[in-house]
Amino acid sequence: MKPYPPPPWNMHGSLWLSAFRLREAADERHPAGTYGVALVSYEDPSPLTYYELLVARTTKNRAGKGAVTITDIWVDSEASQAGGRELWAIPKQLCDFDMESSFRGPVTSTDWTATLERRPIVSAHFTDVSRAAVRVPFTGLVEQPGIEEHPDVADVEMKGSARALPCRSRWDFAADGPLGFLRGARRLGSFRMAGFRLSFT
Fold first, then answer.
1. Residue 113: closest CA among 166, 146, 159, 76
2. Which of these, 18, 56, 83, 138, could form a disulfide with 4 (CB 3.0-4.6 Å)?
3. Which residues, at least 6 apart from 61, have a Cβ–Cβ distance to it below 8 Å?
4. Per-residue pLDDT of the chain (201 residues; tens, 9 = 90+)
5. DSSP-assigned beta bridge partners for residue 102
């Protein structure tokens, strides 16, 4: 038996995301362009519960539609890692996370850290009132180039709903870490999706 559930994955949780503009290519995998950097908490009743850090670049898929390609991603679940790689060519790696939220009225303050073999990748702080927002639908497309576990290009569709609003954010990418290339990128904006429901197929 596979260690992960079959698709679709019907996920629940919260996401904190900032968009960044990278003016010059960092390397072959990270050309100049717009990137989203997100920290995600997948919670019950998701079929798998775990934390995630991902970087995705905006692009056009083979059909000419707006999409994203995930360039970098870490999780703290071996089952999620295997499923992401084998089902959708998402190059998930493993790392460790700490996340803590506090609440004061409608305001949520959240601190995140992600570390790889005890070395920091990123730390981030967010303040938002998204829990008070009206639930709205969202959709998105992902196109992933093939990897060893899934050699063909993978096309993924995301559909769901969330309570989403802009938020305040502060990011610190470790200079000697795998996301150090984002230290010079310009932050365009940030938002939180609270209590999302997401179907990933």
1. 76
2. 83
3. 67, 141, 143, 155
4. 899 999 999 999 999 999 999 999 999 999 999 999 999 999 999 999 999 999 999 999 999 999 999 999 999 999 999 999 999 999 999 999 999 999 999 999 999 999 999 999 999 999 999 999 999 999 999 999 999 999 999 999 999 999 999 999 999 999 999 999 999 999 999 999 999 999 999
5. 109
- Beta pairing partners, 68: 58, 142
Q: Coil, helix or strand for 100?
A: strand
Contacts of 66 (CB under 8 A, 6+ apart): 58, 59, 60, 141
- Give one DSSP letter per residue of 44-81, joined into a string: TTSSS-EEEEEEEEEEE-TTS-EEEEEEEEEES-HHHH
Cβ atoms of 88 and 59 closer than 8 Å: no
